[in-house]
Amino acid sequence: MSKQKKRRRLRWRFPTSAMSQSLSVFRYSGKALGLVWTTNHRLTVVLAILTLVAGLLPAVVAYVGKLIVDGVVVATQSGITSDRLTALGYVGLEAIAVILLAGSQRGQTVSQSLLRVLLGQRINVLILEKALTLDLPHFEDSEFYDKMNQARQGASVRPLSLVTRTLGLGRDALSLVTYGGLLLQFSAWAVVVLLLAAIPSFIAETRFAGEAFRLFRRRTPENRQQYYLETLIAREDYAKEVQLYQLGPLMLQRYQRTFQQIYQEDCNLTIRRGFWSYLLGLLSTTTFYAAYAWIVVETIANRISLGEMTMYLMVFRQGQSTFSTALTAIGGMYEDNLYLSNLYEFLEQDVPQPEGRATRGSIPNDGIRFENVTFTYPGVSQPSLRGISLHLKPGEKLAIVGKNGSGKTTLIKLLSRLYTPDTGRILLDGLDLQEWDIEVLRSRIGVIFQNFVQYQFTVGENVGVGDVDHIQDQARWKVASDKGMARPFIESMPQGYATQLGRWFRGGQELSGGQWQKIALSRAFMRTQADILVLDEPTAAMDAEAEMQIFDHFRTITKHQMVVLISHRFSTVRMADKIVVMTEGEVVEQGTHEELLERGGSYARLFSIQAAGYQ
Asked: Mind listing the domains of the chain with CATH numbers?
């Protein structure tokens, strides 16, 4: 193909591509309208009708105003009573039109306010529902948080804004048609001038709307950092350390520095936007006064009446304002679509759903098997687990020990199916975890992580969250808290299980670290059908005597359950049927307490070091 033909083809494609790109920014308008419609049908219909009425009435007011002026002139010249009554009748008619216009505008405001509240709740629910479908790796990815923050910012108002602007555009189009019909009686050129006068402001608004959106997306991490610093300074669970280490001034300084960086960018954009909007707006003002002078000249020459002059001036001014508003609405729709693209990019992101449907294993009572399991966290080069192979039989107690970072908690995350192994597989009763129905699988597992959540709920609800289907079952609360050895101190509290925990809400009480851990242990026992218990440092905040009491009690009540225990205290892990020692993601030793001591390896050395501390 010759270069000349290729250039012709490129010239042909470019306008089509540009047009397609321009139209693509409005692809969310239909979705926004559907979202508002499903939020509340009646309010949407009322808003549409009021918008239509508000589009028709301004032209009616302008035309009646012309009738009033001409009627006054006629009545003045004739002196006839009927002419005076006619002029007064026009005044009454205009008053009615103005009252209806004000009512429709106020109705629009009320409808928009109500829809804004309902829609804000609907959008937040959609975002939270989407968040519930995501996997743990999403929540450990900073880019995911950026996407979620971008989706949430402005998402509660942008769909309504887009629909309101769309309806407003229809209203303005209707007004412009009526204004154009009136202006055509004066001159077709007046209509052309009216249309051209509003274009400069539209160019400025559209250009800066896109720039503001790009700025918003680029600095999402800074906004999140600012919010995080606010949390550190203002939350009670951080207050002790912030005050003790005198971190407040440093954090406040960082907060202000981040704000200044954001403000400088905003200030620069705002000043440029204001300057160009004012400069281009001057063109519209000059055009209006040129048309003003033209109409006055025509009136002086007696080619139009005084009433017509009044009407044309009103129509031209309102028409110019309406057309400018319409173009600004288009620019606003462009901006709204840009922000809605964030929302729908988040809501529509593909999240693979669990495909497993099995509710029972192929080899009943085979227990848990890790077969050559390897796993690497996203974005990390070194594997966290390498070639892990284990077998835990029903009723057995497995303890896992090792230094921090050796992969103990990662092993638990894989067993809970929060992550999927890179290679190898994990079996439960002879069936790969990936083939199990996720709800059935997790109902069989009770887990307490080291950093368990301290819910700002009542005591009973803090225990009840262990089985959400029975969260309000008071009988289960008591059984579970008895197993977790929390019942004595719970029943000694003034309101028992109805006591509010935490300091966020009125009347809340705070617990000690050991009491919170007993609450968390009780939570694990809420799942009466769970045959797998996973405990990650469950007694780290307890004293040695309380720990021994709990584990003696624990062995008694979990005879028929598989237990995986992570602990740094060898006085507790020695009670396990099998002990696994992990180093840098690998199993380096496994056996009973006595077998490992006889080998004289890592476990024996660590046990001796810890035992020496008590001598």
From this structure: 23-219+263-347 (1.20.1560.10), 393-422+433-444+531-615 (3.40.50.300), 453-529 (3.40.50.300)
